[in-house]
Amino acid sequence: MVYAIDNISFAYDSFNILEGISTQLTKGSFYGILGPNGCGKTTFLDLLIRHKKPNSGRITFSGTDLSKISRKQLARKVALVSQDFYINFPYTVREVVIMGRYPYISRFSSPSSKDLDRVDSIMEKTGVERLSDNFITELSGGERQRVVFARALVQDTDVIILDEATSNLDIRHTIDLLDIVRKRVDQKKLTVISVFQDINLAARYCDRLVFLWNGTILAQGKTEEMVNKGLIKKVFDVESEIRFEPLYNASQVIFKRGAHETL
Amino acid sequence: MAQRIKTSLYRHTAWKLLLLLAVLAVAILISAGMGYLKIGFYDVVNIIVASVTGNSERIKDLEEVFRVVVMDVRLPRILSAVMVGAGLAVSGCVYQGILLNPLADPYTLGISAGAAFGASLAFLFFPEAGLYAIPCFAFSGAVVTLFVVAWLSSGKTFSRDGLSSNSLILSGIIVGSILSAGISFLKYIADEEVSVIIFWLMGSFASKTWTDVWILLMIVSMGSLIVYFYSRDLNVIALGGRMASTLGINTGRVTMILLITSSLVAAVCVSVSGIIGFVGLLVPHMIRSMTGPDNTRLIPVSLVAGGILLVTADTITRAVLPVEVPIGVLTALIGGPFFCYVFRRNHLRNRGK
Fold it and tell me: Across-strand partners of A213?
């Protein structure tokens, strides 16, 4: 068990964002979090990385209360790839990726050759090594996103959290990124918790899906059981057809149109 | 190979730092010999060595007035200028790092306006207690302003997300404008005291004493050590609050510590020397092109460079120009246009990409 989440709620003042969320996330699985805009997906991730604290309920990480784990310890266990990433200072790409090793390097020492080997091999795998000496301020949104992804991999964590990590990427880089992650789930028992907008990508890559709706979990379970017309209608308010795609060995959704046929 | 590049970069910075320190030492010594009474370089060295070691053998051929001028008049002023320059530069680095904005400085948050308002109050209501009242009031003004600005920008997201840089800058501008209007009002009702206020506001190192030097040394060095301790965290904060959280940093706490520390440093500098603009803005900006944005390198180099810049500027106004121009006016007159040039150049370069 990586995360055990017991009846957590989160609110700004009296405005409830999340209410009564309970779920368990196990090691070596790829979880997809899906739901309409404003349903609380990002806040849910913020609670998992301890960027925000739940108002009530309990989150345990590997059996320990999340709030009792030191931030530095947690930084060696959980990494985040977020979508809205912008740096105003001209760090080079390599410098940014090296920051992923900070949880392992003491405050006043420079990175060891082991740290740097790790950085270089990940940069090669994620295809950002040719950007190595470029300034992060001069990259396109998609290139920046791949740098952030490399930085997260360099952190060598058991858990990677993706917050719409592919939203700025073209289709080839999207598939590359998710393939790398999927491979690590299968081979290294990595746990991935990813928010998706694209339900077909989620259906193709995830082991389990969690549907958030209006601050609560509407449904959760194995991907093949979750991808069905009724649930999609309920969560997204869109009519659809489900087709099995043998190439992916997964179901894919074909959308018709919104339930409110106003046009 | 990669390792070699990295280490050579660090060694590079160490050399630059040593070189700048040497330049600073030479600048101090040359400056101490310049002025109405010209004193030779070696005489200055001898006077300082003799005074520090207490061995007056070395300067028995020199007139007493030389020693007095160097030790009691010029050195306190010169060292105050060095320390204020260093302090303003370091707090500039911190503000730019926290506000995620390479164009921020100690003045963006209205800290200087707060100090100026406090000092103006002291000039107006406690003119007889001047010597002690002014630094105290300036300092309190700066600290109160910092907390008002932090409180204004915090709101409900404060406890969870830390301070947002946009709301900090906005709050700083709002509070700063109110305080400026307040200063104008105080000047208006000040009658004959008004010239004292105006001169203080323009900034000066004239008639600084060893007491000023010791206070500055204590606050600036302690502040710089704290800032340096958190300099790597400041790098990560540039990635944004959420990202910093997952890299093991308590963003809210580090931000508060750094903000308070650098504001105290800036407040002490302002309370000793009056308003000296553009040092905190320009120095980190220029040094960044030399060391890169990594704060573990940027902060120490900026510290020394800030000292050099301000001692040079102060020497120019004291000993080179025919009339002593207030230092704050000089830095703004030279720094302002220079900054326009740097800003425009970077702007064009970025657009070209």
Answer: A216
Is the four-CA dihedral A118, A121, A123, A126 of positive or negative sign? negative
pLDDT tens by residue, A51-60:
889 999 999 9
3 state DSSP class of B333: helix
Are A161 and A50 contacting, i.e. CB atoms less than 8 angstroms apart? no
3-state helix, strand, coil in chain B (%, to 5): 85, 0, 15
Which residue in A156, A74, A157, A144 sits closest to A118, CA to CA?
A: A156
* Chain B neighbors of A51, CB-CB under 8 A: 160-161, 241-242, 245-246
d(CA A160, CA B246): 10
Radius of gyration of chain A (CA): 19
B3 in A contact zone (CB under 8 Å): yes
Which ipTM did the prediction report? Answer: 0.85
Single out the residue of B200, B23, B192, B53 nearest to residue B117, CA to CA.
B200
| Strand order across the beta sheet in which A15-25 lies | A15-25, A3-12, A56-61, A64-65
Per-residue pLDDT tens digits for B124-171: 888 776 567 777 888 889 889 988 988 888 765 443 344 567 788 888
Other Cβ atoms within 10 Å of B344 Cβ, number: 10
Contacts of A108 (CB under 8 A, 6+ apart): none
**Whose CA is closest to A207, among A224, A229, A190, A195?**
A224
State how far the Cα of B221 lies from the Cα of B125, in Å rounded to an integer.
Answer: 32
Partner-chain residue, chosen from A49, A100, A107, that has the shortest CB–CB distance to B245: A49
pTM for the model: 0.87
Distance, CA of B65 to chain centre: 32
Side-chain-side CA neighbours of residue A27 (13 Å) = 11
What's the rounded Cα separation, in Å, for the pair B63 and B104? 48
Select from 1.10.3470.10, 3.50.7.10, 3.90.1170.40, 3.30.565.10 the CATH code of B76-352.
1.10.3470.10
The CA dihedral of B94, B100, B102, B105, to the nearest 10 degrees, is -40
CA atoms of A193 and A88, how far apart (whole Å): 28
Q: What is the pLDDT of residue B198?
A: 86
Distance CA B200, CA B276 (A): 10
Q: Please tell me if residue A189 touches chain B, with a CB cutoff of 8 Å.
A: no
Instruction: Indicate the pLDDT class of residue B350, thresholds 50, 70 and 90.
Output: low
**Amino acid found at B309:** L
Which residue of A46, A88, A155 is in closest CB contact with B102?
A88
* Alpha-carbon B207 to chain mean position: 19
* CB burial of residue A157 (10 Å; 0-12, 13-18, 19+): buried
